[in-house]
Design goal:
With 72 residues, this protein is mainly alpha-helical. 57% of the residues lie in helices and 6% in strands. It has a two-stranded antiparallel sheet with strand order 1-2. α1 (3-20) runs antiparallel to α3 (61-69). The longest helix has 18 residues, at 3-20. The chain is globular and about 30 Å long.
């Protein structure tokens, strides 16, 4: 996963956790605007989320942040 995507995921997770607490869930769509302006990056996130780690549609932000920070 490219560094810019890792940074964006951590940023979004931090923001969601700050707003709604440690129990907040999110999907990989949370890292993108409603407009699909970068389909390659979206597919990279989707592949990491669905194919690589077989995550549920919604996962806890703290879990995703930890995975990304660990380099998974």
């Amino acid at each position: 996963m490219r560094d810019t995507l890792r940074e964006k995921i951590i940023e979004v997770c931090d923001k969601k956790i700050e707003q709604k607490g440690d129990n907040v869930g999110l999907s990989f769509y949370a890292f993108f605007a409603n407009k699909n302006s970068d389909p390659e990056l979206l597919m990279e996130a989707a592949t990491w989320w669905i194919s690589t780690h077989q995550l549920d549609h919604f996962e806890k932000a703290v879990k995703i942040k930890a995975m990304v920070k660990e380099g998974l």
